[in-house]
Amino acid sequence: MVAVFVLLLAAESGLAATSTPTAQTEFAKRIAAIEAQTRGRIGVATLDTGSGKHLDYRSEERFPMCSTFKFLAAAAVLKRVDEK
C-alpha cells in the first residue's frame, strides 16, 4: 500500500505543474496502469496549492473509508484546516 502511494506521488509530481488536457490524459494513463497492476480501483485528486492547477482520476466516483483510522485521520486534517 505504501509503495503504491509513493508511486502515485512520483507519477503526479512531474505533471501537476502543467495541468493541461495532455497532462491530464498522461496522468490518467499512469494511474490506470497502476490500477491494472494492482487489480484494484483507484481514485486520485491532486492540487498544486501554489498555482491552483489540479489533476484527477475517478474524481467523480465515491470511495468508502476502509478503516476507522482513515476516518479519524481525515477528521483531524479537516479540523486543522478549519482552524487556519
Structural write-up:
It is a single chain. With 84 residues, this protein is mainly α. It has one domain (2-83). Helices cover 55% and strands 10% of the residues. It contains 3 helices and 2 strands; from the N terminus they run ααββα. The protein has helices at 2-13, 21-38, 68-83; strands spanning 44-47, 54-57. The protein is flat and about 35 Å long. It starts with a helix and ends with a helix. The model has no long low-confidence stretch (mean pLDDT 79).
Provide the fold topology.
Layout: H1 2-13, H2 21-38, E1 44-47, E2 54-57, H3 68-83
Antiparallel strand pairs: 1-2
Helix pairs in contact: 1-2
Short description:
This protein is mainly α and 84 residues long.
